[in-house]
Amino acid sequence: MSTPHSRRLGTGRRLGIGLAVAAATVALAAPSSADVVSLSVSDQTLQTNKTYTLTATVSGSTIGLSVFFDDNGQNLGPAGGVTPDTLKGKATTTWTPTKSGSHTLTASQGSTKQSITVTVTDAPTTTTPPPPGSCG
What we know:
The protein is α+β, with helices and mostly antiparallel strands. Helix content is about 20%, strand content about 40%. It has one helix and eight strands; from the N terminus they run H-E-E-E-E-E-E-E-E. Strands 2-8-7-4-5 form a five-stranded mixed β-sheet, with no helix packed on it. It has a three-stranded antiparallel β-sheet with strand order 1-3-6, with no helix packed on it.
C-alpha cells in the first residue's frame, strides 16, 4: 500500500538521480573554445637581427589546436602553426626581427588571439679595423 509520504520519497529519489546525471554531464562537458591567455617575448630589449622566443599561453578544451604567430600580419613559424605543449599549455616559436620600429606580435588559436606591441631598435654595428699595414 502506497502512502503520500512514500510517493514523495520516490519522486525525490528520481529527481535526485536526474540532478546527479545532469551534474555529471555538465562536469564532463569541456569548454567550447580555446583561449590564448597571454603572449610574451623572451627579452625586453629587442634589437634587429637577434633571435627571441615568443611564448603563447593557451587554455580550454582545444588546447591541442595549433597556435599561429605573426609580426605585423606576417606569419612567423611553420605554415601549419605550432602545437602547444598540452602539459604546460604553452606554444613557442622563434622570431628574428629584421627591421627596427614598432612591431605588433600576435598569437591566435581558433577565434581568440592576444597581441602585444614592442619596439625594436637597430643592433649596434661593429666595424672591423683594417689589417695592419693596409693604411695608405
